[in-house]
């Protein structure tokens, strides 16, 4: 029997796929990339048309040799890596790393699929194709471009600021957005304005203490109120004084039916945004958990099962099969009134949307969150629940509301203004529709039964003071949205970018989990803005992304794109080494130097932050920063049963989790035990 070798990226994905294949298939994992640029040097031959100098990483060599042996005995090699550019490049690298270049073309095939299900795998095997070298070249161009920027600018930053820094096309733009938002907040000056609301009720119901309702002032005479029309207390008081003896009457009532449609299914960026808002997940945590759900989770007797479609996508497209499955599920579980007469389809609006992937959705809507909950850890369940609800909601009927707007006139012969117009609004839900599965904050605003010309009684007139507020700091969710709207980065880059700018110390989270720049981040940003403006220019970076898309579409060759950028960049970099002064970041503290009485400041050295006297060099007092106690996770240590697992950091800043009784108990792990159901239950 002929042997057919299927290669995927991860062992989890391999286990899930092997369920659907016969005995003539062998499924192996590449364990990620099998070739990459070397870490120890630039790895790009600039003089030889930017040829990448790929190597097999040391940690991958043993496994590559094992794959070679298996490949030598196989009659057919099927490359089933992910369907995006990164997956296409891994497939291409596998051909070279395993020495398959001389194999006949029909012995090496490429298959792609959006989901790991039997139907999808069978369909992919029926429709193999060749490796798409255009997508490979787009990935190579991104990799080479990022290497040229990173390996050229990083030493410059080490020399001019401090060691350990890095720069990159996407990460530097992200830092710039955060720095500029922070300065916008700092320079913001609040502006005062006032509003006037009236608490009213029907006059004939006064004795029965009928429902009181509120109406807001919207018009004085013929002039519609703008935000700053009542600029101060005196202006608001003039209105309330003028209305003391007014009569109140219903001028008009407008009732209308309002419908609300569900949001589109998730893309990578919208999933990251919603997971942050609803679950508090970081972008990195969202993608890690989504990958687990995609590659396969053990579902008891079912074995490893892929629960969602591929999680790196900028498409809101849904397959016809998934639309039919959703329709059947909704009809069965919710009833006919929740079913659409025809499927609801969505159009991708993302700037620079890539290949025609599907949106992120459950592989089977009939597999409800409650059905799989016993097999998932807490984070997996919460994210699957979010994805499942969002998808099912897209194919449910609209939510229906009754909206009412009542305009109320305040008039009197004694009024200085001819009239005042107030408006009260109300809303009631007639039919929940998709909200039955996708809960949203909704507060019914009930109004009493009113008729035109009804006379009303004023219970209270409320002048309210307000101040404009500065724009909020970016959250991970809103930063991803800003990057996507500006065409910066792609689905595969959002989470790594956010992780990098925090790991490098350019950005930190405040107490509300919002992003603020550090002193180092601000200094590096200002240096790049002044001396390397193209690196942090939003339009320039977006244009580069568009050019990478054109390479993937076969419209451009990749080397000229790199050359157009690199030649002026390299020339500018050489000049800047001579003209840019060294800048040392400093953070103020409230601590006083015990030797000279001057303020202590936080400085940055090659081993991190430390306290130093601001009187340097006259006073050379310096000491390490006081260590913060490790944060508790609340999870008991599964090894000693006496301590608890706490969050710690290695010397290089990598987070890990260990027992609070260290060194008596040396239990440690890289993964957060709060995400591990079994550890948490021990």
TrEMBL record:
Example GO biological process: DNA topological change
Site (Interaction with DNA): residue numbering on this chain: 33, 142-143, 146, 151, 158, 312, 504
UniProt keyword Transport, yes or no: no
Residues at the catalytic site: 310
Start and end residues of each Toprim domain: 3-116
Molecular function terms from GO: DNA binding; DNA topoisomerase type I (single strand cut, ATP-independent) activity; zinc ion binding
Role description: Releases the supercoiling and torsional tension of DNA, which is introduced during the DNA replication and transcription, by transiently cleaving and rejoining one strand of the DNA duplex. Introduces a single-strand break via transesterification at a target site in duplex DNA. The scissile phosphodiester is attacked by the catalytic tyrosine of the enzyme, resulting in the formation of a DNA-(5'-phosphotyrosyl)-enzyme intermediate and the expulsion of a 3'-OH DNA strand. The free DNA strand then undergoes passage around the unbroken strand, thus removing DNA supercoils.
Family to which this protein belongs: Belongs to the type IA topoisomerase family.
Record-given protein name: DNA topoisomerase 1
Species for this entry: Candidatus Sungiibacteriota bacterium
Gene from which the chain derives: topA
């Amino acid at each position: 029997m002929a042997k057919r070798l299927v290669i995927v990226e991860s062992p989890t994905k391999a286990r899930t796929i092997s369920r659907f294949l016969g005995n003539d298939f062998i499924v192996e994992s590449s364990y990620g990339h099998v070739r990459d640029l070397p870490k120890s040097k630039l790895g790009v031959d600039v003089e030889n048309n930017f040829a990448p100098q790929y190597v097999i990483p040391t940690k991958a060599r043993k496994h590559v040799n094992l794959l070679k042996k298996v490949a030598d005995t196989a009659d057919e090699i099927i490359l089933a890596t992910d369907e995006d550019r990164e997956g296409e490049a891994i497939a291409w690298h596998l051909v070279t790393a395993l020495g398959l270049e001389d194999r006949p073309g029909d012995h090496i095939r490429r298959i792609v699929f959006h989901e790991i299900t039997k139907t999808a795998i069978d369909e992919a095997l029926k429709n193999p194709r060749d490796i798409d070298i255009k997508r490979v070249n787009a990935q190579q161009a991104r990799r080479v471009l990022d290497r040229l920027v990173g390996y050229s600018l990083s030493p410059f930053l080490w020399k001019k600021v401090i060691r350990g820094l890095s720069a990159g096309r996407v990460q530097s733009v992200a830092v710039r957005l955060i720095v500029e938002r922070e300065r916008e907040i700092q320079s913001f000056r609040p502006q005062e304005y006032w509003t006037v609301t009236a608490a009213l009720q029907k006059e004939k119901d006064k004795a029965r203490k009928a429902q009181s309702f509120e109406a807001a002032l919207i018009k004085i005479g013929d002039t519609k109120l703008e935000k700053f029309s009542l600029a101060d207390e005196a202006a608001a008081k003039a209105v309330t004084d003028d209305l003391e003896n007014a009569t109140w009457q219903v001028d008009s009532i407008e009732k209308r039916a309002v419908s609300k449609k569900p949001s589109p299914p998730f893309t990578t960026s919208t999933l990251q945004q919603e997971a942050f808002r609803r679950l508090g997940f970081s972008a990195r945590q969202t993608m890690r958990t989504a990958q687990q759900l995609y590659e396969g989770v053990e579902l008891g007797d079912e074995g490893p099962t892929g629960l969602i479609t591929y999680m790196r996508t900028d498409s809101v497209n849904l397959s016809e099969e998934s639309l039919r499955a959703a329709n059947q599920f909704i009809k069965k579980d919710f009833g006919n009134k929740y079913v659409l007469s025809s499927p609801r389809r969505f159009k991708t609006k993302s700037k620079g949307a890539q290949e025609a992937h599907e949106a992120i959705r459950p592989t089977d809507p009939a597999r409800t969150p409650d059905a799989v909950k016993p097999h998932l850890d807490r984070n997996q369940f919460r994210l699957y629940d979010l994805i499942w609800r969002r998808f099912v909601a897209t194919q449910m009927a609209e939510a229906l509301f009754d909206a009412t707007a009542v305009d109320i006139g305040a008039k009197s012969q004694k009024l200085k203004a001819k009239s005042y117009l107030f408006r009260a609004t109300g809303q009631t839900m007639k039919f929940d529709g998709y909200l039955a599965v996708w809960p949203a904050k909704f507060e019914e605003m009930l109004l009493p039964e009113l008729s035109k010309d009804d006379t009303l009684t004023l219970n209270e007139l409320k002048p309210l003071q307000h101040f404009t507020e500065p724009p909020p700091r970016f959250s991970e969710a809103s930063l991803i949205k800003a990057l996507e709207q500006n065409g910066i980065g792609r689905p595969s880059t959002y989470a790594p970018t956010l992780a990098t700018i925090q790991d490098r110390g350019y950005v930190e989270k405040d107490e509300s989990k919002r992003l603020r720049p550090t002193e180092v981040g601000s200094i590096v940003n200002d240096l790049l803005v002044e001396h390397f403006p193209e690196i942090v220019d939003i339009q320039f970076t977006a244009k580069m992304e568009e050019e990478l898309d054109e390479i993937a579409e076969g419209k451009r060759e990749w080397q000229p794109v790199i050359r157009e950028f690199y030649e002026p960049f390299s020339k500018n970099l050489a000049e800047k080494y001579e003209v840019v002064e060294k800048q040392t970041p400093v953070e103020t503290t409230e601590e006083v130097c015990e030797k000279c009485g001057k303020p202590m400041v936080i400085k940055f050295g090659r081993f991190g932050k430390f306290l130093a006297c601001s009187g340097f060099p006259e006073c050379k007092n310096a000491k390490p920063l006081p260590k913060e106690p490790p944060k508790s996770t609340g999870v008991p240590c599964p090894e000693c049963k006496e301590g608890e697992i706490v969050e710690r950091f290695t010397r290089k800043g990598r987070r890990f989790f260990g027992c609070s009784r260290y060194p008596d108990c040396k239990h440690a792990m890289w993964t957060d035990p709060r995400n591990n159901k079994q550890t948490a239950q021990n």
